[in-house]
Amino acid sequence: MKPIDIIKTARLATFDDKPDQQTWEDKQYLVALNDARSLVFSKCPESRVTAVVGLTAYSEIAEADLANEMVDDAIYRNFYVEFLAWRFFDSGSRDTANRQKAIDHKTGYMQALSSLTGGR
Predict the structure, then answer these.
(1) Which terminal Cβ of the chain has fewer Cβ within 10 Å, N or C?
(2) Which ranges in 15-56 belong to alpha helices (H)?
(3) What does the pLDDT look like over 79-91, one tens digit per residue?
């Protein structure tokens, strides 16, 4: 799983996928992705054990590493996409439609996190 693939999927979820009309740069999505990963690493200790690498520690993904494979297992993909979509819509929450979309995606990422943590 590559950060750029998560960002591309989040762009589809936020309708921010037309190159000539994108409102967020990749680095803005990357900041949200790093925040999401930090949350997962703090709430899900088991996320530190990956199928590929074994035991890992949290480290931020740099913009230069967008196309590189992440150590995180693909099971976290839904959570990451929902979190990024929430942050995108929450940044424009003064608009009623964006506010509702932010709430919907926050619910989505919380449900995804809950399923990962077994409800804790």
Answers:
(1) C
(2) 26-43
(3) 999 999 999 999 8
